[in-house]
Amino acid sequence: MASGKPVVATDVGGNPELVVDRVSGLLVPPRRPDMMAEAILELLTDEGKRRSMGEKARRRVENDFNIDKIVKEYENVYFDLAKKKGIL
């Protein structure tokens, strides 16, 4: 996604938090290699869709997963825990 490429991933774990289905990539059910192949072929054969999803994937990474934002979120977690423990 950071490279401006759409993602094809299984709809498990943290993948749905990262990939917005049909926006920044395609999510397929687990243990469905047939659907995975179809999703890959869909992007390989549709340059417009591939480029559009790739651009949206890149923007999502830049906006939602940049290092400054992630560090700030970790800081907030640590400060909240410290406050609850009476350290701050």
Considering the chains and any ligands shown, give keywords for the structure.
88 residues, single chain, 2 strands, mainly alpha
Summarize the model shown.
With 88 residues, the protein is mainly alpha-helical.
Overview of this structure, please?
This protein has 88 residues and is mainly α. It contains four helices and two strands. It has helices spanning 15-18, 33-45, 47-64, 67-84; strands spanning 7-10, 25-28. The longest helix has 18 residues, at 47-64. The mean pLDDT is 96.
Topology:
Blueprint: E1 7-10, H1 15-18, E2 25-28, H2 33-45, H3 47-64, H4 67-84
Parallel strand pairs: 1-2
Overall domain count: 1
**DSSP helix count?**
4
On the 0-100 scale, what is the average pLDDT?
A: 96
> How much helical structure, as a percent, in the residues?
55-70%
Strand order of the largest sheet: 1-2
Q: Give the N-terminus to C-terminus distance in angstroms.
A: 38 Å
Q: Give me the Rg, rounded.
A: 17 Å
Shape: elongated
- Detail the poorly predicted runs: none
Give a short account of the largest sheet.
Answer: 2 strands, parallel
Q: Give me the oligomer status.
A: single chain
